[in-house]
Amino acid sequence: MYHNRQAMLSKATKRLYFLKLLKRAGVPCAQLQHFYVAVIRPILEYAAPVWHHLLTNCQSDQIEAIQKRAINIIHSPTHGMPYSNALFFAGGTSLRARREQMARNFFESTTQPTSCLHHLLRPPRDPELLSRLRAPSKYPRTSNRTKKYQSFISFAISNYQTSYIFTIV
User: Fold this and answer.
1) 110 inside domain
2) What angle, rounded to 10 degrees, do the helices at 57-74 and 5-24 form?
3) Least packed by Cβ within 10 Å: which of 70, 74, 113, 133?
4) pLDDT category, 164, cuts 50, 70, 90?
């Protein structure tokens, strides 16, 4: 993440002020939405596949609060709405869901043999062994004592592998 989560939130909050100034200047909602997506959201999602699994619910909610404030600035009728309704009104998705999807996509691209990060994974299990396992997964799972010291790779291996279903021919 950043050196400090608070620094990231502070930087995004400062840019919300510019969004507010644009709204006061009469910029259309579509342009305000574009400003948010191009200028503010990247701050909140920078390197998210690597750090999102370490966030507590409270920290994740703080990040979501920035997006909710942006939606309230862009779309005035969303003031006082629950966050899920405001997201629906704005046609967006939660940052938590976006981070989860980015992490899943990153892990899937990492498992490709053409990836330069492929060497970070342990060797895949033998397909014959997979057919005998109750819960087959291509890569063996690593165990960690605490979530704090869990790397993205070990988190992704334990959470993003699709089960391999074998058909008997």
Assistant:
1) no
2) 10
3) 113
4) very low
